[in-house]
Amino acid sequence: MRVLVLGGDGYLGWPTALHLSDQGHQAAVLDNFARRGYDRELGVDSLVPIEDLDTRVAAWEEVSGQRIASYAGDLLDADFVYQVLREFRPEAIVHFAEQRAAPYSMIDRQHAVYTQQNNVIGTLNLMYAMAEIDPDIHLVKLGTMGEYGTPNIDIEEGWLEVEHNGRKDRMLYPKKPGSFYHLSKVHDSHNLEFGCRVWGLRVTDLNQGVVYGQQTPQTIRDPRLATRFDYDAVFGTVLNRFVIQAVLGEPLTVYGTGGQTRGLLDIRDTVECIRLAVENPAEAGEFRVFNQMTESYSVSEIAALVAECFPGPVQVDHLENPRVEQPEHYYNVKHTGLVGLGLQPHLLSDTLIESMFDIVAANKDRVNLGALLPTVRWRGGLKNG
Ligand code: NAD
């Protein structure tokens, strides 16, 4: 299939494009390189060096014989989006191209506005382009498990059967997200469901858990194919950050009690989930939701696991939680959709923490220690007086 990967220069978009290309799909990537710009703004960099997109694409052609077309541009530029869809004529689009860090969206008003504008308007431009050029394109859109928050009831896959005053309906599952970033994904989900209902678009919304790991069978074929590995308190996701802190001999920074439970998945499962969703499209008019996670752990359990696997002493520090979130809560998530399509998860218990230690050790001179501690507070972005 012809598959366009939006955000194809990012942590997950690049390995996904490689995986799809390796599986025989004709892949193209689109990116505006905003992510590399946030690095410059925050004074951080991927722990593992990454090449620019042209070098990556050329390296993949050299290694695999497969060509990945690349488009440099912004989803906020509607003319560009229309032009790419007309030129590449995708059968499926995988949409990763959003600002994805909750702390970044909570820095201040400007960053909240940027995040919601970038994410919501970019997706809206894409929806219009699809509806006007080819409504048959299947959109695989990355959402997040953070859209649901931590309700005190079971989390279903996107939809909830509701009985109210003796009547029943199937409603979008109610959302209680924890940041302006997560809210942008909720707004996207509602816009997309509307597009399916009104224009007959076909969409799969993947509510993805927190991803860990840095290597896939394709990225390890050449160092020029490496994907990014973030460790800073703004973009570094929790398990990746703990692994890096352990290797550097820095304390693992658990926010608050560490009782916050989150859904997780291995980067190798992310790319496979996308392939499964692409190859098994939603029906015309269907807004299909999968919870893309394989298991849940509390932040304290993740810290304990990293400490247990690391062959040396590890200190765990409990910092005052910069976020506003429930310290302890119920968390029971349905996630059978992707397994039903054939996903065979890599679980954390029998997986790669040890191999991540080696990746970090090889690059530890690149770390900016000052970036490890949280500076963004959920109530700190308000300028009162
Ligand atoms: P990333 O920031 O590494 O990649 C996103 C890419 O999109 C970047 O390369 C960026 O330059 C590009 N981009 C952003 N705005 C754009 C625009 N307007 N036009 C064109 N390109 C644009 O993020 P990631 O970790 O690869 O995450 C990808 C997606 O998966 C995001 O939507 C994110 O919300 C979702 N997700 C990620 C995780 C995770 O743990 N990494 C968890 C849940 C969901």
Automatic annotation (TrEMBL):
CDD domains named in the record: SQD1_like_SDR_e
Classification via SUPFAM superfamilies: NAD(P)-binding Rossmann-fold domains (SSF51735)
Gene3D superfamilies: NAD(P)-binding Rossmann-like Domain, UDP-galactose 4-epimerase, domain 1
Matching InterPro entries: Epimerase_deHydtase, NAD(P)-bd_dom_sf
Every NAD-dependent epimerase/dehydratase domain range: 3-291
Family named by the database record: Belongs to the NAD(P)-dependent epimerase/dehydratase family.
Protein name: NAD-dependent epimerase/dehydratase family protein
Native source organism of the sequence: Kribbella sancticallisti
